[in-house]
Amino acid sequence: MRQIGQIGGMTIALLLLATVAFSQSSDFTYRGLGDGEIVITGYIGTNTTIRIPEEIDGKLVEKVLCLSLPRNFWAPKNSRFPTWKHKNSTSIPHPFSRKNDWIERIEIPTNITNIFELAFLSCPSLSSITVDEDNPVYSSKNGMLLDKNQTKLLCFPPRKSIKCTLPKSLKTIGMYAIHGNSSTRTLTIPSAVTHIMSSAISGCPNLETLMIPTSVISINSGAVSQCEKFTRFEVDPLNPAYSSEDGMLLNKDKTKLICFPPAKSPKCTLPKSLKTISKNAIRSNSNPRTLKIPPTATHIDTFAISFCHNLERVIIPASVIFIAPRSVAICRNFTRFEVAPLNPVYSSEDGVLFNRDKTALIQFPAKKPGRYTIPDSVGVIGPDAFREYSNFSGRSSLTNIIISNSDVVIKDKTLSSRKNSR
User: Fold this and answer.
1) Contact assessment for residue 214 and residue 244, using Cβ atoms and an 8 Å cutoff
2) Which of 54, 84, 129, 268 has the most Cβ atoms closer than 10 angstroms to its Cβ?
3) Helical segments of 250-312, H only
4) Average pLDDT, the chain
5) What is the 3-state secondary structure (H, E, C) of 74-141?
6) How many structural domains compose the chain?
7) How would you classify the pairing of strands 232-235 and 209-212?
């Protein structure tokens, strides 16, 4: 018999965080790349209009990682600006670490040729970006940041009215291009756009409807994210690649669910033609406690149902013949799979997902409580079978995992790494 840890000490995976030293020059923090280049890692000044420096300490600045405040800055309750806390800290800022609420305008000089997609996410008051005309990589129009040919939207400032005219040449809406904008309930994608990238439209608190024209032929997984009021896609009927039904985004023949809007009630009827629930299709929806997969579905992709923190139970019909590892992911209150008895490929027991004859354990729910003994019939613990539990082990009431079969093959790294528990 093997006992895989106690709840108090069940640290199945370790996250190693590396720190990189950063330096300060005037109002910017930066670090050298070893080849004479400088990358901007943060802004610690108090100006509402800032210009990215062309050089620091005689070295050329070519890259902007982010303009966040480092974690070692703090702002007093009654102050708008940060205060220096630890001068010799080795941490560097993450784009989400601290917000620079007061930055309204950013000027980008000619020499800046590499701007990270998340560089300006920490600037919620940003209303305008201006790029020098001679910059070989970037350009600006109406305060927006674009590539040089103005075919890709890189940043639409959050305080800018969404009603402004986007360039007719625009083909792609880049990652996090429209982030934190609260000025609209309905967003119409321009008629020339062909590609919408992952998280292209994110953190827009009032967005409810997205209008997609005939020109769009590629919408990446999770293109609309963290928009808590978003309820509806409306796709032009003549679009050759996509369609919509009752606000859901689907492929053209309505066999694949691409996105179920996060604020939409799960009680709506899914199309009878539905075969596949794709990655991130049902994401950040706080409505359901029980989700019933429609009886026509055959495939459930990895992360198909994710970040639904009120979800407790998923009911899987007999039609489903493929369930990817971590099909239900990062759902902190999820406790139970229920598979139809007539399903030819899968089964469930006590809320845990197995193959049909229970020789392989496929997924253990994130918040299943108590002491769990793996059935003797199990010969294989699949990849990531306990990954969801390990993500939320601090919130789970699981106390022990017991394996009676000494010959079981453990493919889940979160368990196999605990050699001392064999």
Assistant:
1) no
2) 129
3) none
4) 81
5) ECCCCCCCCEECCCCCCCCCCCCCCCCCCCCEEEECCCCCEECCCCCCCCCCCCEEEECCCCCCEEEE
6) 3
7) parallel
pLDDT tens-digit profile of 117-131? 888 888 889 999 999
- Top pLDDT among 381 and 271 is at 381
- Over the range 27-59, which residues count as b (16 or more CB within 10 Å of their CB) and which as e? ebbbbeeeeeebbbbbbbeeeeebebbeebeee
β-strand partners of 337: 314
Using CA atoms, how far residue 400 sits from 151, 169, 226, 337, 362, in Å, is 55, 59, 35, 20, 18
- Cβ(272)–Cβ(250) under 8 Å? no
Check pLDDT > 60 for residue 184. yes
In this structure, are 284 and 416 located in the same domain?
yes
Residue 45, domain member (yes or no): yes
- Alpha carbons 299 and 69: distance in angstroms, whole number: 44
Residue 198's contacts (CB-CB under 8 Å, 6 or more residues apart) are: 175, 220, 221, 222, 223
